[in-house]
Specification:
This protein is about 65% helix and about 10% strand. The structure holds adenosine-5'-diphosphate. The site of adenosine-5'-diphosphate has 12 residues, from helix 9.
């Protein structure tokens, strides 16, 4: 249960902490300096006034030549001093608060940008996903804490130095008590912090499973299937298992954390602070008579503040260590290199359609034991209508992802217009494609933004309406209260429009049509699988008709819908086993012909059943 967690040398932890501060400093140096100065000046001011005032006040009172006027001046001076410090405090707070929000906003944006530019392969990788989840969920807190801890550290260290000077000038022995307490505190808090961090990491990893199950139960797209099946049984089991494991982990760490806390509390507070210090001061003042009442008050105050500040230094060290451990992940995350996203090319993408050529291409997913695609050869000519068919898991979707350069090939090559696709800028190359996937998404944005997939531009309205007409969404568009500007989904707008499955699909298909002027290749990865065969056939005909001169690549299970393609490629276990026109493949009487006859028979039976 208790897996080995990160162990980092102190140097690395400190270098990590410096990395976070440097990172924040580049964003808003003035804010960090301001917080630091405010903490040091304010903190030292309060502590010194507290101690020095107390000593002077009691000495004045116990002086036989006591003067009311002198004491009143002292009290007035202390009050003005406090008021100045408090005003300074409030001013700093109102200056730093909005700037801190701006800083954390910038950090979040940077994280989003980083994720957007991550290659798709990182989503397949657990380590990446874990690093991302932990980093994204803690970044804001960690940066804010790191900045404030720098200020706190400065304040505490300077206060301890100032008060230690004062204590040593009166009676150095008293300094031993807070120092001893500090040592015990450092050791026990370090253990507690490490245990808490390990607990957090383990809990997060386990809860990812529970959160998945929970998410599935709460999201509407799963609701129907859950109600109509028993999928909730394994999901609930997984949830319970995760909760049980979390309880186990909580017990394991909870007991250890409590024990160390107890050691800390008994030694530092009960024994040293509340027992030893008053005894010693009483002895020195009443028995030895070496110090006066003012000194007793000042030393008691000063040692209490030093103890608290040392304690606070300890907490700061603890948080710095936590930030240092966290930053290890953050650095790893920031150092993930994208090999595909946002790559600049050495070649201009062709302005006219070219030949898409695949040569002896193989592909293996990162960390997979075997190739998903093996020795694929293919040539697709401008304007061709090509169909990829085959059983589930044969490799068709992977293949189109490679064509669009969502992944890079492992062996061999894919070229377009005479150049390897890796020679083009990724964005420009992808822009030649229009695609609709089976799991297309509708976004919480306007209808127009959902079609164009960028922000609303007034000059594009005509194009969007035309595309929606071609995809069959025209009638529904007429019913939308704000036409193209109608908000889709209820994520942000209470009366946002929730499209039906078929309507959503039309909006997704309209993306292709809106892009057809600059689209060289349209890819349809079973977007119509939810439709009946006739509707799917009509949709495909519609696409062929409106796709302009673009090359069209279809993936479909239903061979009846792809039989009009210029060329059909049959995939099996990552290889192309047959290729040709429908007629050629039927004449070949191989796997395709068998699959086609089989589907035709079921389809016929279905028709008969309906008719009967
Ligand atoms: P098809 O589209 O023909 O149904 P896919 O291309 O989706 O086939 O899948 C081909 C094979 O690759 C399957 O065995 C699948 O499990 C595997 N696969 C798909 N996506 C990933 C991934 N992200 N990581 C590892 N293996 C994957």
């Amino acid at each position: 249960m208790h897996k080995e967690t990160e162990k980092l040398p102190l140097r690395r932890i400190l270098s990590n902490y410096a990395y976070i501060l440097r990172y924040a400093f580049q964003k808003d140096a003035a804010l960090i300096i301001m917080i630091f100065v405010a903490y040091v000046v304010g903190g030292v001011g309060y502590a010194s006034m507290d101690t020095i005032f107390m000593r002077a006040f009691i000495n004045f009172l116990s002086d036989p030549a006591y003067s009311f006027k002198q004491t009143a001046v002292l009290v007035a001076g202390a009050t003005i001093g406090m008021a100045v410090l408090m005003t300074f405090d409030r001013c700093t707070e109102s200056f730093t608060r909005p700037r801190m929000i701006r800083l954390t906003g910038m950090l979040q944006e940077e994280m989003i940008h980083k994720v957007v530019t991550m290659d798709l392969m990182y989503y397949d990788c657990d380590t990446y996903y874990d690093d991302f989840v932990v980093t994204a969920s803690q970044l804001e807190d960690m940066v804010v804490t790191a900045i404030y801890d720098l200020g706190r550290m400065g304040r505490n260290v300077v206060t301890v130095l100032v008060l230690s000077g004062l204590i040593t000038s009166i009676d150095p022995v008293i300094a031993l008590f807070p120092v001893l307490g500090f040592v015990v505190n450092v050791i026990s808090r370090f253990r507690i912090m490490k245990l808490e961090y390990d607990y957090d990491v383990e809990k997060k990893t386990i809860m990812r499973r529970a959160n998945y199950s929970k998410r599935v139960f709460y999201q509407p797209e799963y609701a129907k299937e859950i109600k109509l099946s028993h999928i909730e049984v394994p999901l609930e089991k997984q949830f319970h298992q995760a909760i049980d494991e979390t309880i186990g982990v909580a017990r394991y760490f909870g007991l250890r954390i409590s024990l160390w806390s107890l050691v800390n509390w008994i030694t530092v507070f009960t024994l040293l602070s509340y027992f030893c210090v008053p005894l010693y001061l009483g002895y020195m003042a009443l028995v030895v008579k070496k110090i006066g009442l003012g000194e007793v008050a000042a030393l008691n105050n000063a040692q209490g503040t030093v103890r608290n500040r040392l304690d606070a230094i300890n907490y700061c060290i603890e948080r710095i260590q936590r930030a240092g451990l966290f930053c290890e992940r953050f650095r790893k995350f920031m150092n993930y290199e994208s090999k595909i996203e946002k790559q600049q090319g050495t070649q201009q993408v062709p302005s006219e359609q070219g030949v898409l050529r695949v040569e002896d291409m193989s592909f293996r997913y990162d960390g997979a034991g075997k190739d998903t695609l093996k020795h694929i050869n293919m040539e697709i000519h401008p304007g061709e209508k090509v169909a990829f068919v085959g059983e589930n898991g044969a490799g068709k979707s992977t293949f189109v992802k490679l064509l669009m350069r969502l992944y890079d090939v492992t062996d061999g090559s894919i070229s377009y217009g005479g150049h390897d696709v890796r020679e083009y800028s990724t964005d420009e190359y992808r822009d030649l494609f229009g695609s609709v996937f089976q799991d297309y998404q509708i976004y919480a944005a306007s209808v127009q933004e959902n079609v164009m997939m960028h922000e609303d531009r007034e000059e594009e309205q005509k194009k969007v309406i035309e595309a929606l007409c071609q995809s069959g969404f025209w009638h529904r568009l007429q019913t939308l209260p704000e036409g193209l500007q109608t908000a889709l989904t209820r994520e942000f707008v209470d009366d946002g429009i929730q499209l039906s499955g078929g309507e959503a699909q039309k909006v997704a298909i309209a993306r292709l049509f809106a892009k057809k002027e600059r689209m060289h290749i349209a890819i349809l990865d079973e977007p119509s699988s939810a439709l009946d065969p006739k509707a799917e056939y009509e949709l495909n005909q519609n696409i062929l008709h409106h796709a302009g001169g673009a090359t069209v690549i279809f993936i479909s299970h239903r061979l009846s819908t792809t039989k009009d393609a210029d060329r059909i490629y049959m995939f099996e276990h990552g290889e192309i086993i047959e290729q040709g026109t429908h007629q050629e493949l039927m004449n070949l009487d191989g796997q395709y012909a068998e699959m086609f006859r089989c589907q035709a028979k079921y389809y016929q039976q279905g028709q008969d059943l309906v008719a009967g």
